[in-house]
Amino acid sequence: DTAVSQTPKYLVTQMGNDKSIKCEQNLGHDTMYWYKQDSKKFLKIMFSYNNKELIINETVPNRFSPKSPDKAHLNLHINSLELGDSAVYFCASSQGGSHEQFFGPGTRLTVL
Amino acid sequence: GDSVTQMEGPVTLSEEAFLTINCTYTATGYPSLFWYVQYPGEGLQLLLKATKADDKGSNKGFEATYRKETTSFHLEKGSVQVSDSAVYFCALKPLTSGSRLTFGEGTQLTVNP
Question: Is residue A98 over pLDDT 80?
Answer without folding.
Answer: no
